[in-house]
Design brief:
By secondary structure, the protein is of the alpha+beta class. Strands 1, 2, 3, 4, 5, 6, 7 and 8 form an eight-stranded antiparallel sheet that branches. The longest helix has 16 residues. The protein starts with 6 loop residues before the first helix and ends with a helix. The relative contact order is 0.20.
């Protein structure tokens, strides 16, 4: 599944995310003033793949569909979303999201909201799709800029498909970044140390 939960699970999970997500209120002033756009990871800065090199897609506007299993835009204001997707020749993929908010305080609240969604993702997957077992793990905080946190989510369907994802949320000032790495496998296949390095690079590289 590569954390692309099947259609029935996705639909139920979207509803669960709406019900469970923390609502972040914002003034009606609109989007944040334009400033220097945050920078993105390059393909070489992702956890190395044993048999295939990474390919980086272009930076695009908007929220990435591939991140929607655990993280969504439900219950939050319309921010300046940009993303970049990565892939290998095998069933391994990654995505980075950057979100520019109007203030450091709002970014801090958004980062907590995204981390809460990732923390509760496994429970919401199971609630939304009874044929999927899911487990989440906390790999701790990283001392970079205003901080980052790494978590893992493993899913296994009744048909035997098993997938592992590592996700992180970090912040630099009023900008939040979310990074996700995913492939077939379980926690034993997750390159946690390399992903922590990738997350640290992602946050440091924003500005």
């Amino acid at each position: 599944m590569s954390l692309r939960i099947r259609t029935s699970a996705c639909t139920a999970l979207a509803v669960a995310a709406l019900a469970a997500g923390t609502v972040l209120t914002a003034p009606s002033a609109g989007a944040a003033p334009k400033a220097a756009a945050p920078k993105f990871l390059s393909a070489s800065q992702l956890p190395p793949h044993a048999s295939s090199s990474w390919t980086a897609g272009p930076v695009k506007e908007g929220f990435p569909e591939g991140l929607g299993t655990c993280v969504s835009t439900e219950g939050v204001p319309s921010f300046d979303y940009r993303h970049r997707e990565f892939r290998t020749d095998l069933d391994t993929n990654a995505v980075q999201l950057t979100v520019v908010t109007g203030s450091a305080a709002r970014a801090k609240a958004l980062a907590k909201h995204y981390d809460d969604l990732i923390r509760t993702c496994a429970d919401r997957i199971e609630q939304g799709s009874p044929d999927v077992e899911a487990e989440g793990r906390d790999y701790g905080k990283l001392p970079v800029e205003e901080g980052a946190r790494v978590r893992g989510v493993h899913t296994e369907s009744s048909g035997g498909a098993t997938d592992i994802a590592l996700l992180s949320v970090g912040r630099d000032g009023r900008t939040v970044t979310v990074v996700q790495w995913a492939q077939l496998g379980d926690f034993g296949d997750a390159p946690v140390a390399a992903f922590k390095k990738t997350t640290t690079t992602a946050v440091n590289k924003l500005y």
